[in-house]
Please model this.
Amino acid sequence: MRIAVVGATGRTGRLVVDLALAAGHTVTAVARDPARLPHYAHGTPRAARADVSRPGSLHGPLDGQDAVVATLGTTGRRATTVFSDGARELTAAVRAGGVRHLVTMSSAGLDTSRLPFAQRVVTGLVVDRLYREVHHDLARMEAVLARSDTAWTVVRVPMLKDGPPAAGPQVSYDRPLPRAGTATRATVAHWIVGHLGDPATFRHLVHLADD
Model:
């Protein structure tokens, strides 16, 4: 498959690129500054410069791709529009470029209804207060995708950490996991690369966590 990874210099994006190369995909690594792309263990992707905050810049790098993975992020916890603006740019470029599948990342913190009571209270008092503005924009991003005609998959993850992939991660479609403490970036990257182009994931919120 022809794969583009938007946000390829980030810690999760780097793993997605490397795993996609290892799987034999033809990969385009999209970044604001391609000079910051790291060395990959399994090959060298095509590099492309684009910025989701610049309207139209994704047209070209995403043309003709079979799947696009967006691992966007932001520094700090202040109000942001990077996710919702990115979703608008991504859906427009995906539609224009004939891309079959768009995968984006979001937060499990947007729905805590199935967490145990004590964990739900802590999440409301601490996590949501800290990341409220980020969560608001992630919700806007998900709304943009839901209104589009794109074959999207949103991967909702809990707190991310470094480490090896889980042997058997928890996965739930469209329902939050009852216990979802953390996930390694490797777990997330492995799941994404393993489900590129999978129609069973289209237009679903996939909740993912380690065991």
About this structure: The chain has a mean pLDDT of 90.
